Amino acid sequence: MEKFMKRSVKKSFAIVAGCLLIFAAFLSVGTAHALTTAGTPIIAIDGDNDSNVTVDVFSVALTSPYVYGYFVNAGPTFYALGALSTVTFDGGDLIDFALYDYTRYYTLSGDSADASYSVTMTFGNQVTAGSPANPAGWSSPYYYNANITWTLSSVINTNELALNFRNGNDGLAPVSVPEPLSLILLGSGLVGVGLAGRRFKG
């Protein structure tokens, strides 16, 4: 009887610990928006429910022969930008800014997989009012302004874009990606609950 009680306590503890790890993983996923991350596109947030998101894009330190531009929603078309461009997106659009040297594209999303360049995104002026229309249920921070800087070994100075949103409470944010810690917590919790259940059946 005493042995059975000890086994039951151990199983209960394993199940509770596993559930806590799973819960912690879900909490951490909800806050996985790094503000200076690389290797991810950004998302346009329509914060004033007017069906469009308009942004002024400045090429602050463009270096020849690179052309600034972007891809939208993983589409194949590269849209070139000038020294000052006004662009309208839809709320929820995924924007993958890039440099083009007429041979290849240096994208935000490709940075983490390519050691030949790096990209740094910094965000400013968090939007604290409004109700973002897209994506539905968005509750993480988003911002009025952003600077995106490329550093390439082939040029001495960096290439920088500055984004400033025109409309009301519109803005942008990094795309939400589960961080490694979140995945570890979730995996540990599932394994713990699974093992406890298996021993209980045995």
Instruction: Based on Cα principal axes, name the global outline.
Output: globular
Do you know the CATH topology of the largest domain?
Jelly Rolls
Rg, alpha carbons: 22 Å
CATH class of the largest domain: Mainly Beta
What is the number of beta strands?
11
Percent of residues in helices: 10-25%
Largest sheet, described in full?
6 strands, antiparallel
Number of domains: 2
Provide the low-confidence segments as ranges: 19-34, 177-186
Taking the alpha carbons of the first and last residues, their distance comes to 17 Å
Residue-averaged pLDDT? 77
CATH architecture identity of the largest domain: Sandwich
Beta content:
25-35%
Order of helices and strands: HEEEEEEEEEEEH
Individual helix count: 2
Secondary-structure content class: alpha+beta
Write the layout of secondary structure elements.
Layout: H1 2-29, E1 42-45, E2 53-59, E3 67-72, E4 79-80, E5 84-89, E6 94-100, E7 105-107, E8 117-126, E9 143-152, E10 159-165, E11 171-174, H2 180-201
Antiparallel strand pairs: 1-6, 1-11, 2-5, 2-10, 3-4, 3-6, 6-7, 8-9, 9-10
How would you describe this protein?
It is a single chain. With 202 residues, this protein is of the alpha+beta class. The protein folds into 2 domains: 2-29 and 182-201; 42-175, Jelly Rolls. The protein is 25% helix and 33% strand. The chain is built from 2 helices and 11 strands; from the N terminus they run αβββββββββββα. The strands form 2 sheets. Strands 1, 3, 4, 6, 7 and 11 form a 6-stranded antiparallel sheet that branches. It has a 5-stranded antiparallel sheet with strand order 5-2-10-9-8, with no helix packed on it. A hairpin with a 6-residue loop joins strand 3 and strand 4. Helix 1 (2-29) runs antiparallel to helix 2. The protein is globular and about 45 Å long. Residues 19-34 and 177-186 have low confidence and may be disordered.
